[in-house]
Amino acid sequence: MRDWILSPDFLCSGGDTCEYLLSSGRFLGEKVWQPHSCMMHKYKNSEAKNCLIDKHVVFIGDSRIRQLFYSFIKLINPQVKEEGIKHGNIPFEDKSASIKVDFLWYPEVNGSMRQRIKSWTEGSVAKPHIIVVGAATWSIKIHNGSNEALAQYKINITSIAPLLEKLAISSDVYWVLQDPVYEDMLSESRKMITNEKIDAYNEAAVRILNSSSRNSKARVKVFSVSKLIAQETIMKSVDGLHLPESSRDTNAMILMNVYCNKIVKPIDGSCCQPQPPLTLIQKIAFCFFTLSIIGYLIISLIHRNNYRKNKSCTDLESGEEKKPVISTPNVSTLEMLLHCFCKLGLIMTYFYLCDRANLFMKENKFYTHSSFFIPIIYILVLGVFYTENTKETKVLNREQTDEWKGWMQLVILIYHISGASTFLPVYMHIRVLVAAYLFQTGYGHFSYFWIKGDFGVYRVCQVLFRLNFLVVVLCIVMDRPYQFYYFVPLVTVWFMIIYATLAVWPQIVQKKANGNCLWHFGLLLKLICLLTCIYFLSYSQGAFEKIFSFWPLSKCFELNGNVYEWWFRWKLDRYVVFHGMLFAFIYLALQKHQMISEGKGDPLFSNRVSNVLLFISIVSFLTYSIWASSCKNKTECNELHPSVSVVQILAFILIRNIPGYVRSVYSSFFAWFGKISLELFICQYHIWLAADTKGILVLIPGYPMFNVLVSTFIFVCVAHEISQITNDLAQIVVPKDNSTLLKRLLCIAGFFSGLHFFSAMQDQSRH
Fold first, then answer.
1. How large is the average pLDDT for residues 549-561?
2. Average pLDDT value for residue range 329-356
């Protein structure tokens, strides 16, 4: 990875991300420009039009500025062709958005350019909203690179600088430094344009512009990043003077980011975006966590003092040891509660600083095959190295499912940080891993309800709390909607669907079905009804949206004012939970009738059947991978995915469980990560990735590998700690006693009512 390129004027600039965007960066690969410390958004035509609506933009300069002009207007209208008078003014107008962009031919910094700029500073003449200026190579060429020409350039720019400063009060003014040339390719008529001369002109421009405002920081922004980009790409120039198209397109995109990011506020465009103000709910959360920390410290001090006073000591008369006074259970519970909120408050502060405050740097992702596959190989080797014997040898036992979740989660994390979603074969295989999580949801919850027959409120509340606690806290602290963390709403809704399917009358469980085989058909009828409902909703977007548009469901499942994103996410893996439930039913039936062998080292079926099934599974697994790798269109493949993803999932389960020796071992390394897989999936949004997963968090700039190691270590430790906090709070917030549980549920209902009230106040103040 290339080192950072820093321009001279950057070295004396502050920590403003706009200055970083205009003055520094490096290439990721050959065409992707990464600004120093922040992320650059790639603007679409519609976004550019929305930003520049009713705006007037002016480019003033020579043929290089004309290049930049064309690249800029192509962001508004890609159909524009580079036609018109080469040495003349070129107008452009987009009437649909009332956007005017003009190129004014002034190849030299002289009296004519000064007069044009001065005309905008006098009287009631409408001033352009954006002014981009730059020129020097013509002066070098016409005057054969003489020192007199440079001296005159300094005089002229000195006279223009105060006018530009005056314009910069109400407009955005950018001075574009001259790009270097590729001297070997220059024609004879341009041989006098040397990089040494260009550097002298640039140095003069920067010095004069920076000193034009005596009492404050110069308002005219120096666009020096173009020079840095040219240093890397000018050798690809056609004539040695003009930049290749990809480089000038990058410059135009930088200009768009500088002006539009503060207006459009794209998630993946952190450059030039101010830190968002704290919302009312965030302020309340901050006060709550602060009080929790203070309360915990006070109680800890009180307990410590009581411990010292009641410390065991020897009675001088009797020689007996006095026992300390034991604290009451209520105080112990309160202390535990405050301790959890104290740790959670500190963790949430770290979350906020990482992804909401402008404290740490953020970078764009850049995919290469090596950045994805090398870490995959590394973790697989580690996983195989930490292999242990399982405590039980049943199909999909707890250790095996933890292992499965663990390696899948690690692969998904590498997929996210490497930006591998741009590579369709990898994307399709990751979709199977997400489906496999949901398959386990269907399998696990169905098995529990079928075997235990426990449909009590306690079980439901425990599951819902463990799934949603972290996400609810993040929605409050990070000011994000619930649907933003899409996977948790997905597994939550599917859990409730599984519960409703099995709990609704007649409740059919294994114990009842063992007494009468007809109950098995009753359960299959329930599953068929569920499949019918899933099929209907997947092809009836209107009905689906009506269901989830009712309050209060709309508050949970809307994203950007509608539930389309939720419908898309639900539809993408709509059948796999049903497949998990059906697999659990068939497996438990086979187990009950002793049609499978789950002894240690024994194959699951007879040798012949096991070999045939193993062969079919391997062929099916590879066939799916070949199909996924040959995908050409993401939309078409996503349409087929819900129906065919189960093939690779079932194939994996059979490959993993048919051979007895494979079923008898597991990777403790993967299993450890599997136990905190949900926390890892959610925490990555803000403290491993950045800008809500669009970029990468940079704690240690300049050392990408070391940065990943440090941020990963902190990220995993935080996820593990949150898992512990969630488990501890679940015991307190969701007690087994029904009467106490009812009181807690009323308190939770009150909490969400208050949250809704403050959210309404917040929305009203925003509008």
1. 87
2. 88
CB 502 within 8 A of CB 585: no
Pairing relation of β-strands 130-134 and 56-61?
parallel
Task: Compute the CA torsion angle 333, 334, 337, 343 (nearest 10 deg).
Answer: -120
In a domain, 384, yes or no: yes
Q: Are 292 and 336 in contact (CB under 8 A)?
A: no
Domain of 745, in residue numbers: 737-766
Same domain, 703 and 748: no
Out of 210-224, 239-253, 632-646, least confident range: 210-224
Summarize pLDDT for 345-392 with one digit per residue, the tens. 999 999 999 998 888 999 999 999 999 999 999 999 999 999 999 999
Q: What angle do CA 524, 527, 530 make, to 5 degrees?
A: 155
Inter-CA distances, 341 with 302, 349, 379, 587, 718, Å: 18, 12, 34, 42, 14
Would 513 be classed as within a structural domain?
Answer: yes
Question: What 3-state DSSP class applies to 362?
Answer: strand
Residue 64 CB neighbour total at 10 angstroms: 24
Burial status of residue 702 (CB atoms within 10 A of its CB: 0-12, 13-18, 19 or more): exposed
In whole angstroms, what separates CA 731 from the centre of its chain?
31
Q: Structure pTM?
A: 0.91
Do 427 and 396 share a domain, yes or no? Answer: yes
Residues facing residue 26 across a β-bridge = 34
DSSP 105: E
Q: Distance between CA 512 and CA 449 in Å, rounded?
A: 12
Sign of CA dihedral 588, 593, 596, 600: positive
Domain boundary among 241, 264, 287: 264
Separation between Cα atoms, residue 74 and residue 78, nearest integer Å? 4
Same structural domain for residues 131 and 173? Answer: yes
Number of folded domains that form the chain: 3
Q: Is the residue at 343 inside a domain? A: no
What is the set of active-site residues? Answer: 63, 239, 242
Q: Of 157, 242, 166, 253, which is closest to residue 206 (Cα–Cα)?
A: 157
Residue 80, φ and ψ in degrees, nearest 5: -65, 135
**Tokens 């692969």 -> residue:** 411
DSSP 536-595: HHHT-HHHHHHHHTSTTHHHHH-BTTBSHHHHHHHHHTTTHHHHHHHHHHHHHHHHHTT-
Q: Is residue 637 part of a domain?
A: no
